[in-house]
Queue: 2 jobs
Job 1
Amino acid sequence: MTMCRRVRRDAVAEGAGPPGARVRRARRAGIAAGAVLVAGLAVATPSSGHVIAIDVGHSIASQGAISARGVAEFEFNRALALVVEQTLAAAGYRPFLIGADGRTEDLVSRPRRAGEARAGLFVSVHHDSAKARFQRDWIHDGRPRKYLDDRFRGFSIFVSRNNVQWPLALRCASAIGARMIAGGFRASRYHADPVLGSGREFADEANGVHFYDNLAVLRHAPMPALLFEAGVIVNRDEELALGRAETRAGIARALGEGMGDCGFRT
Ligand SMILES: [Zn+2]
């Protein structure tokens, strides 16, 4: 995927200006006009859409939550982010993936790279857990694991009022949450609960959106930014659902449609 994106960016840089001028420049440079036209066609669709930063939460060194069956959150995040990238590209957006190689350790460089890529929207992709004291023991494949019961399930979306463009971030979060619910997904309740969660204030209760003002990755973003928890991988049933291709496709579709609803037209 990395190589494809690099090729596309190069093509964009080379393809600047009207098509006629591109061909003339290419002829002067001794490059076959056909090749340039192919490159021009290849960039025509993505260059018409907004750049959307898709941030893969966590890294190889710091993998986030561990699922009920022992899979690292980073793996779930990356798998979903790649589907989101494909879905957005197919819809005419220009997705810009951050952290997919698992080597991005700090949080501040993520929104900075999104800014450098001129992303109009920043979406950090995560999968959820809950407090350790609610996690119970079970054995999976002969190994001791932790799981959460059905009080802990569903997607959650977070926005920060310290993000310079939080009103638009909230509008997008609400739109994405609404599309998730329309797609058959359920919003979590437990983050708002003072015992089960952290008493996190709802920003849009109906659509599963909360305020989380001090999230670094949102605070430092120069564009509207939101953090998307796709679901709870420590919940055994939800982990299985979140690992299915059709679930990832449905989530990616909801994200793309929600972005369209809040003004990021392709
Ligand atoms: Zn996470």
Note: The radius of gyration is 20 Å.
Job 2
Amino acid sequence: MKIDDLDLKLIYLLMDNSRLSISELAERLGVSRPTVKSRLEKLERDGVIQGYTIKLNPELLRAHNVVALIVKTEEPEVLRELEEIIEVNRFTSRKYLIKIAVEDMEQLRSVIERAGFEVLEIMPILESLEREYPPRVKIPFKCDYCGKEIVGEPIVYKYRNRVYFFCCPTCFREFKRTRENIEKFRLKEEQKIENAHNHEHSTHG
Ligand SMILES: [Zn+2]
């Protein structure tokens, strides 16, 4: 496939505005309309132009908070199925750097729960040097143990398909301890019931 100067100019014009008509393109390039038409057909046929896309209003783009995560997953296909995941970069066969655009923490929680990956690191993006419009607000991460707003990187913990965020190792530790105590208590209660049940059986049998 050969691309000459005219093709390139055509591509640049369309990249800027894919809705330019053949007449408008012909006029800007100073060539005839049949020339533009045949060039476009050739570029499409060769797969150089694979589609005509739209530019989204930056206001809409920046309505989202973007969070970067390093995750480990055995099922990378799932990453592509979730529309909140806007970028997927592979490190190694199972490690990925992904970006998730969400409205709030609950949505982030839900994405992590649905995606089934293991979160190795999580970094809310506060500023993007590449983007003309930075993300509007940072995600108000709240600690699931103390309820305080999380400054910096939250600690992510997944337990029984539910994702929790913590502000510090202390909160994370306390949460786990409380949870373990609750479980121990529950287990004891269950055993009591079971014992009573068995006892009932033995006296009747
Ligand atoms: Zn906390």
Note: The mean pLDDT is 82.
